[in-house]
Automatic annotation (TrEMBL), chain A:
One of its GO terms (molecular function) is electron transfer activity. Pfam families: ETF (PF01012), ETF_alpha (PF00766). Binds 1 FAD per dimer. This is Electron transfer flavoprotein subunit alpha. The electron transfer flavoprotein serves as a specific electron acceptor for other dehydrogenases. It transfers the electrons to the main respiratory chain via ETF-ubiquinone oxidoreductase (ETF dehydrogenase). Its cofactor is FAD. One of its GO terms (biological process) is fatty acid beta-oxidation using acyl-CoA dehydrogenase. Keywords: Electron transport, FAD, Flavoprotein, Transport. CDD domains: ETF_alpha.
From TrEMBL, chain B:
Pfam families: ETFQO_UQ-bd, Fer4_ETF_QO, NAD_binding_8. Keywords: 4Fe-4S, Electron transport, FAD, Flavoprotein, Iron, Iron-sulfur, Metal-binding, Oxidoreductase, Transport, Ubiquinone. InterPro entries: 4Fe4S_Fe-S-bd (IPR017896), ETF-QO (IPR040156), ETF-QO/FixC_UQ-bd (IPR049398), ETF-QO/FixX_C (IPR007859), FAD/NAD-bd_sf (IPR036188). Its EC number is 1.5.5.1. This is Electron transfer flavoprotein-ubiquinone oxidoreductase. It comes from Pseudogulbenkiania ferrooxidans 2002. It is an enzyme of class 1 (oxidoreductase). Its cofactor is FAD; [4Fe-4S] cluster.
UniProtKB/TrEMBL annotation, chain C:
Pfam families: ETF. This is Electron transfer flavoprotein subunit beta. Belongs to the ETF beta-subunit/FixA family. GO terms for molecular function: electron transfer activity. It comes from Pseudogulbenkiania ferrooxidans 2002. Heterodimer of an alpha and a beta subunit.
Amino acid sequence: MAILVIAEHDNQSLKAGTLNTVTAAGKVGGEVHLLVAGHNCGAVADAAKAVAGVAKVLVADSAQYAHGLAENLAALVVDLAKNYSHVLSPAGTSGKNFLPRVAALLDVAQISDIVAVESADTFVRPVYAGNVLATVQSVDSIKVITVRTTAFEAAALGGSANVDSIGAAAEAQLSSFISQELTKSDRPELGAAKVIVSGGRALGSEEQFKAIIEPLADKLGAAVGASRAAVDAGYAPNDYQVGQTGKVVAPQLYVAVGISGAIQHLAGMKDSKVIVAINKDEEAPIFQVADYGIVGDLFTVVPELIQALGNN
Amino acid sequence: MSVRESMKYDVVIVGGGPSGLTAAIRLKQLAADKGQEISVCLLEKGSEIGAHILSGAVLEPRTLNELIPDWKDKGAPLNTPAQKDQFLLLTETESIPLPTPPQMHNEGNYIISLGNFCRWLGQQAEELGVEIYPGFAAAEVLYHPDGSVKGVATGNVGTGKNGDQDGEPGIELWARQTVFAEGCRGSLTKTLFERFKLRNGADPQTYGIGIKELWEVKPELHQPGKITHTAGWPMDTATYGGSFLYHLENNQVVVGFVVGLDYQNPYLSPYEEFQRFKTHPAIRGVFEGGRRLSYGARAISEGGLQSIPKLTFPGGVLIGDTAGFLNVPKIKGTHTAMKSAMLAAEAIVEALATAQEGQAVEASAYTARFKQSWLYDELYRVRNIRPAFRWGLWPAMLYSALDTYLFRGKAPWTLHHKHADHECLKPKDECTPIAYPKPDGVLTFDRLSSVFISNTNHSEDQPAHLKLKDPSVPIKINLAQYDAPEQRYCPAGVYEIVGREEGAPRLQINAQNCVHCKTCDIKDPTQNINWVTPEGGGGPNYPNM
Amino acid sequence: MKVLVAVKRVVDYNVKVRVKADGTGVDIANVKMSMNPFDEIAVEEAVRLKEAGKVSEVVAVSLGVKQCEETLRTALAMGADRAIHVETDAELQPLAVAKLLKAVAEKEQPQLMILGKQAIDDDANQTGQMVAALLGWGQGTFASKVDLAAETVDVTREVDGGLETVKLRLPAVVTTDLRLNEPRYVKLPNIMAAKKKPLDKLTVEALGVDVTPRLKTLKVAEPAKRSAGIKVANAAELVAKLKNEAKVL
C-alpha cells in the first residue's frame, strides 16, 4: 500500500521539513503520495511535485484549510488515510497538532517523533527528552507517524509527480482562526534556532560577552546562548542558559565559545548536528564532543572567525 | 510578604532520616498503647523521604527488632543478609588481609539502601497517622518569651536570586515538643548548641566525610552479601580514613570512602582520594565492565560518646546523628540513631503526659534513659578507638587491639578530642601539594559528572544557601594561607576560585550543585561558611543510596 | 463552568533516567516521581480560571497505579476541588488514556479540559489532541494564553515561528505549553487541606475501555555517545570545513 505524507507549508512555500519526511517515507518502502491541504496553495503544489520520490501530489484547496486548523485537516486526512498503510507528517507544531487527532479517529496509535525506520512496522523514537531511544513496533493496520526531520536527509528535487485535485471534507466548525503573530526578532529564538553561538565564563564580563558573542551571532544569523557558569557570573541573562537546567537545544550548528563543557551543559546541546568548540584549554571536555575544535584564545579566534565568515 | 500562618502539633520532628522517622513511629505506638492522642508532624527538606539519605549501609537490626518486630512481614527492604567480612590493609600495590575486629563482624546484619529503608519507615509512620511533609525545610527555630523552643518555621520561597522579591512566606509549626533529627551537623541544631550551651562539658564534635557511589557490576563479579573494608592507601598514616565495598542485590555494589575531617594537609581532596582508591589492584576488578549508577556524599559525626552534647532543653530534644550517636569502630550509626529516637520518644510521651498545658516541656528523662540503655554501653566500650587515631594508623591499631581485647572497652581512662576539625588544617606552606591522577571517565570521574548522577538541583530563583559571614575571608585567608581548601573538600564542585589569571581571584559559589553534605560548614578554617537550608525540595534526589 | 484537568505521574525532571542493563526498559525503582511539569501548568491555569470567577469547579483526574493518588493530592493542594483516580496497573498508551478521559468527560460533562502538551517520560504529545478528536471537540494545543468566555475560548498557541490565536467553541480541549503560567508554590496548610478533599476511584472495567497497548516496545537503549572530532588550526580552516565538509554554512 502507498504512503501518505502531509506537506507542511504556509500556502506560499513548501517547508523544508517536508523533504526530510519524504525521505523517511521512502525508507518505509512504498509509493509516496504528498498531500497539500491549503488555500490558494498552487505554488506549494508546484514545489511538491518536484520532490524526488513523490509519485503523486494530492491538492485540497479550500478556505477551511487556509490556516491548517487541526479539526478540519484531521477530517480530510482521516478520509484519505483508509487507502494508505502509513500516514506521515513532519513533527513540527503543525503535524503535532493535527496528526494525533487523525490517529484517534482511525483508532490507531500515533508513533511520535521517529528518528529511524527499522522496518515497515518498527521505528525508533526518543523518549525522556532524548536520553533514551525506544524501538517500538506498531500492531495497527495504519501507521500514523510524526517524523523528527533533523534525523533524515532532505529528499532531492527534480521529480515530476502528477498533481490530483481532491475535494474538501465537511468543515468541522469547532474552531476558527483569529490571528497570527510571527516572531520579528533580528535574532532567532534559542529553542528554534538553526545556529546557536554560546558563550561561557571565559568571556570574563558582561561587556565582553556582548562584544564577542553578539557580532559572531549576527554574522551567522544565530541565536545567543550561554553556559550556566556565564549566567551565574552575571555575563548573560537567565533565559540564555543552555543545559540541564536551562534550554535543551539541537541546532544544525552549535558554536561553544569559552565553554569548558561540563556534563550539565552537554546535556543541553549534545544533540546538535555539528558542534564547534573554541577554548584555550586543550583538555576541556567540550572537545570530546566537538566535531571541530580550535585551541586558542577566544578573544583573537572569534574576531578572526568573523572576518573569515565575512570573506565568504 | 504577608504574615506567616501557623499550625499546632503536639510534636514536630525536623528531618525524615532513620532517627526522625523512628521517633515518629515510636510516639504513635506509645500514644496508641496509652490510648492517648499525640499529633506528630515531620518535615523533610528533601523532595521526598529518602531523597537526601546516603549511607553505606550495613544495618544491625537490633533497634528495628525493638521498634517493629514484624518488619519482615511488613516488607522492610532488608534483602541482602551480610555474608563474608573482609578487612584489608592496602599499600599502593598490595593488600594484606587483617583479622576482622570484633566490632566489625556482621553476622545477622543486612546490607541495605538506607534511602529505601527510610522510604519504608516513612510508609510505616504514615500508616500510624504521622503527617509527613517532604519538600519543606525547617529554616528557623521559634522561641516562646520564656526562652523555650516553640517550634520551627519553614523557609520563605520564591524570593528571587537576591532574596529581595516578594515570595511566599514560610509556615510556623508550633509544638509542645520539637525533635531535631537533622542528621550530622544540623543547621538548626548548631544554633541550639549556642542558645542552650548544649556543648558545655562535651568534647568538640569531630567528623568524617563519606563519599559513595552505586555501581551495577557484571553478574559474574557479583557476590551478594560480601563486605569489604580497607584501611591504609591512599591515606597517609597520619590521616584517618578507609573504604567500604558492599555487594547488594540486583548486581549492585556500593563503594565508598570516608576521610576524617581532622586531616591537616589543605591540599588533600577526599573526592580525589576516593577516585584513586578505586584504582587499587585489589579493588578495581569488581568494576570491570560495570557502570556507575549514582553518586553522593555526606558528613558523619565521629566524636562518639565524649562529643555527645546535652540532649534536652526546654521545648525540644536532639536525636540521631545531629547529636552524634555513631559507633565509629562498628562503622554504623543507623541502629544507634534509631535507638536514641526510641528513648527520646518514650521520654517525650511521659513528659507530655505530666506537663501542664502552656508549660515548657523538657524531656529530661531522655538523658537518664540513654545512660541506662545498651546504646550507652555500646558507645562507652568503643569510646577510645577513634581518638587514638590522632597518633597515626599504626599506634592506633595497636591501641585499639589493646583497648578492645585486653580492657574489653572498660579501660580506666577516656581519650579526649582536643580540637575541632576546622582547627586542624596546616598552612599550605607547611604542606606538599598532592598530584592526583586525571579521571579516566570509566572507573574514575570528575566532580561535575558525579554531581550529575546525584540528580541534584536547586531552584535558581533563590539566594545561595551557603552564606559567607565575611566575603573577604575566602581570598584573604582561605586562598592566601590554605590555597582555598574548599575547592578540594567539597565533593560537589560548589566552590571555585576564578579570575586568578586576571589577578583578581574571587570565590565562585555554585550553590546549585550542593549535595547537602555539610563538609564546608565543618571544615572551613575560620568557620566563615554557614550552611543554611535552601528552599525545600532542593538538593540531591538519591535513588537507592 | 466545570474544568477537567488531567495529570500524570512521571519520573521527576531532575532525575537522570537509566536504561536497564537488559534493555527492556528504564529503571525507575525508588526514583523520585512527580507531577508532569506541563500538567502542573494545566492545574495552575484551571485554578486561576476559578480564582478569576470564570470557572466554578476544577476536577483533577489521573490514570494509573495507586501512587497516582499522590499526584492528585498535589493537584488538590494547588487548588483543584476534587479528584478522580482511574486506578490500574496496566500500561496505558496515549490512545487508551484518551479513551479513558473521554469516558470520564462523559460522566463529568466539563466545558473545558486542560492537559499538559506532553508528558516528559514518553514525550508523545498526543493525548489532548486524541481526546478532543474522540469527543468531537475543538482543540487549542501548546497554549501560551487562554481567554475563556461563556461559549468560546480563545487560545494563543506557540507555533513554529511565532504565535497563533484560534477561537474554539466550547466544550473544548486546551493543552499547555511552558510559558502559559508559572505554577504556584504549594503551601503546607493547603497540602493538609487537600487530604480532606474528595478523591473518587474508578476502574478501567467500569468505564468499559479497551486499553490494550498498540505499540510494543522491543527495546530501549541509550543514544550513542558523541565522539571527539578534529582540531583545526585557525578560523579560515574552520569556515572551510563548515562549508564544504559539514555543509552547515
